Amino acid sequence: MLKSDSIESVHFIEPGKSYLPELDAYTEFLTMRGIGVSRHTSIDTVPSNAGVIWVICGSAPAIPSRFKKELIVVHEYASASVGCLAFLKDRFKCLFHSKPTYRVFLNEWVERQFNFKDNVPSFLRDMGVPHYFFTTEPSDKRFDYIYVGETSRLLAFRDELSALSLAGKSLVIIGSYSKKLENLVSTLPNVNLLGRKNQSDIPYFLSKAKAGLNLMPLQRPYIYQTATKVYEYLAAGLPVVSNSYKWIDNLSNEHEEAIFVRNKLSSPECWNEVENELINHHAEKDRIEKYSWQTQMSSFGLLQALNLKP
């Protein structure tokens, strides 16, 4: 087991209810190098001898004086702010978050939204996919489409889901869901809610689908940020069907053989056309390895700055 000469442990501070698969990837990377990892929802539980405090922002707490001067502080911004007055929320964070040692951003667009003016070194780190998605084996197909992830966004696609069902296509939805979505799905005979599953179980369900579905509301910041589900679909060998928006349009230019983007999916005829087109679409796994967490970690500049070699 390898170990950094200077870092004994890393303490992550995370928002309490967020789903953060990147923390599992960090934990695996660090523990393989003999570095202790702990997760906190408050800086109050972080021990005073901590060497690295890594804050998933959200908010960023002030660092109490009880910590040693050599403390390394990382602020990670995996998303720009959402909801009402999102731009002002980003400006507030820029003005009032304490100055860390390093910053991490999901991509260049997210970094630009905060527009920090100091000289703190920053690094980009995209989302990734666990290794077990890449070993998904094809299986008997039980449904036409699968949707994995944040389900509240599907409420903006009532017409599309209704058209899919009317076309006789089946869809399963994996993820925690609200009563509003449950009521909507109850009117769609070919759509089923499976609830939240462990991430390690997702490849099994992907293997039973013909294609992965990605529907994203045309709202900031979603249209500029990574839809991790798309990487998961591709890693499992599934073609992807999506509405058109900035991030997916750019990705589809790289993977025309696997990603099928349509501006309109609100009629049964559209879904029948999609099925005919999908015959010519398939994911090529040898081109998808760059989305694995292993690849993301090996190219992550912050880990190299901390002398944590891939």
UniProtKB/TrEMBL annotation:
Enzyme class label: transferase
Gene Ontology terms, MF aspect: glycosyltransferase activity
InterPro entries xrefs: YkvP/CgeB_Glyco_trans-like
Top-level taxon of the source organism: Bacteria
EC number: 2.4.-.-
Domain Spore protein YkvP/CgeB glycosyl transferase-like, residue spans: 167-288
Keywords per UniProt: Glycosyltransferase, Transferase
Protein name: Glycosyltransferase
